[in-house]
TrEMBL record:
InterPro entries: DUF7522 (IPR055944). It comes from Halodesulfurarchaeum formicicum. This is Uncharacterized protein. It comes from the Archaea.
Amino acid sequence: MVSVGDMQMVDPDGPYAELMQRLLEATADDLRLVFQYDSESVDIAFLREDFLSEDMVPRVDELHSRAKIIETMPTEDTQAVYGDLEANVTVHEDVFVLHFFGTEGDGLVAVVDRGDGSVIRSIF
């Protein structure tokens, strides 16, 4: 499901519904893409209008692959000291990629512009 303008939830009762709504509210026009994934599928929940003409499948596939790799990276020592990995932020020249990890191989990925007014940029 792809939405332009108002974010439409892939699963409004799912574990990421509230997080997706908060991302939309906090990032306003800076949000490019949001997708949920599980072991079986990837569902695009939001795609900003100016990216509709682009082929997003290779980009989403790459981000999904990275999310699955990062999810399995913590060692037992790291988990013992810090606990389970719940999220990861990747900083690129033009965007922030936010990975939120769930349980059993599911998660949410959001891509946010790194513009000067970005809320995410103000944090970093």
